[in-house]
Amino acid sequence: LAAMVAFGVWIGRRQRSSADFMVGGRDFPWWVILFSIVATETSTVSFLSVPGIAWGSDLTFLQLPIGYIVGRLLVVSLLMPRFFRGQMFTAYEVLNERFGGWVRRVASLLFIVTRTLGDGLRLFLSAIVLWKVVGIEMEYAVACLGIATICYTFMGGMRAVLWTDAVQFVVYMVGAGIALVVLLGQIDGGLTAALDLAEVEGKLQCLDFQFDLVTPYLFWTGLFGGAVFAIGTHGVDQMMVQRYLCARNQRDASLALGLSGPVVLLQFGFFLLIGTALYAFYAQHPPGAAFGPKDGDKVFASFIVDHLPVGVLGIVLGAVFSAAMSTLSSSLNSTATALVNDVYMPPERRDVDDAARLRAVRLCTVLFGLAQIGVGICGRYLDESVIGSVLGIQSFTTGIILGVFFLGIFTRRVDQRAALLGLLAGLLVMTSIKFGTPLAWPWFALFGSTATFVFGILASVLLPRNRSSTR
């Protein structure tokens, strides 16, 4: 933790302006952007929860990143050119050009609320490990990780976030590899025995071509639901778009995003292999207190704390915290940038100097960090898998914002009023689906974007034409 804070502060020591803080000078090479994209979406939720999925079920989770690859390629072709028209700071400036300020502000606020809730739960999951190792109260564990991340994000801005992301990607992958080697060494028969047991138990299934709207990890759910979800998370989510805006040019940003899909697929496969090995390990060495069906998030964390030798334990804990901080720091910077640029001090305000904008974005970084700490402390009251809760929250509004982007790209008749009504209708539809149906979360983005798009078009047809509100 101390090393990451020190490194982040050192890397960001030269930033002097709000543009440096928010987009890091726009001079990053593609491979740093690639590592940052992967590290940002691979929080502790992925590091700890994905192995828990394989431990409790099978490998069908891999069908989801197949759709992620398709979605990213569509972002490269449809949306990436729009982000490199001028000197943008947020994804929602595209909406401002098409619909005006109100649509931009509402979309940005939806992103801010969703990101704060989802990443607060990611912080909670990271703190579980610190709590188990050190034995301090959960509230202090959450605060410790949250404050450490706030420190280097506040001091170093986006330059510190991107470079620490790249380092953290290497750290957590090395840590996961070491943990797997130690894990296999403690299984009688090693990897062969683990795979044999998994095959007998039916845990090596990767593809399931059944179709329903309730089961989250099916092939068609992953392909279509996952693709639309990826278009939303990597095409209209400020946390990812901000990375592209830090690249030297559109080509480098597109290369980084396109390659990130296969890297994430391989990474998830590796994490699922760890979960398969954990199943064999605990079959041979039952824990003192048996894990329940809802304890998948805790299985890998318990092995790390209880069964890794001294020294190795420290390395893997560093990996866990690296996975956590890479996502949290990105979240703090992107939410602060969105609030200042889209809501509080948009660039079109000429009465605000750059020093004031820099102070504002730094203050917002601290405030959002404290808000995520608060959400993380409340995470202990969840009664379901953290990864399901996090992805469910994220996909709830991702589709709605994506639907507004589609209205701007594929229609000319829809004006600001119709876009806002479509957005409101999308929120009502998704609220009804989330709390009134058993629809699996990977479908949320598809249903939300479709509802927003359709109701936006209907509103444009039914409302009297207002030419002044369409750009």
Descriptors:
19 helices; single chain; about 475 residues; globular; mainly alpha
List the helices and strands and how they pair.
Elements: H1 2-11, H2 18-23, H3 30-41, H4 44-56, H5 63-78, H6 80-83, H7 93-99, H8 101-134, H9 138-185, H10 190-200, H11 219-235, H12 238-244, H13 250-284, H14 296-307, H15 312-344, H16 354-378, H17 386-410, H18 416-436, H19 444-462
Helix pairs in contact: 1-9, 3-9, 3-12, 3-13, 3-15, 4-13, 4-14, 4-15, 5-11, 5-13, 7-8, 8-9, 8-14, 8-15, 8-16, 8-17, 9-13, 9-15, 9-16, 10-13, 11-17, 15-16, 17-18, 17-19, 18-19
Give an overview of the whole structure.
The chain has 471 residues and is mainly α. Helix content is 75%, strand content 0%. It contains 19 helices and no strands. It has helices spanning 2-11, 18-23, 30-41, 44-56, 63-78, 80-83, 93-99, 101-134, 138-185, 190-200, 219-235, 238-244, 250-284, 296-307, 312-344, 354-378, 386-410, 416-436, 444-462. The radius of gyration is 22 Å and the shape is globular. 56% of the residues are buried.
Helix content: over 70%
Regions with pLDDT < 50 over 5+ consecutive residues? none
Order of helices and strands: HHHHHHHHHHHHHHHHHHH
Specify Rg, calculated over alpha carbons: 22 Å
Q: What is the SS-derived class? A: mainly alpha
Please count the helical segments.
19
Strand content: under 5%
* Mean pLDDT metric: 85
Sheet with the most strands, sense and barrel status = none
Strands, count: 0
Shape descriptor reads: globular
Cα-to-Cα separation, first versus last residue: 48 Å
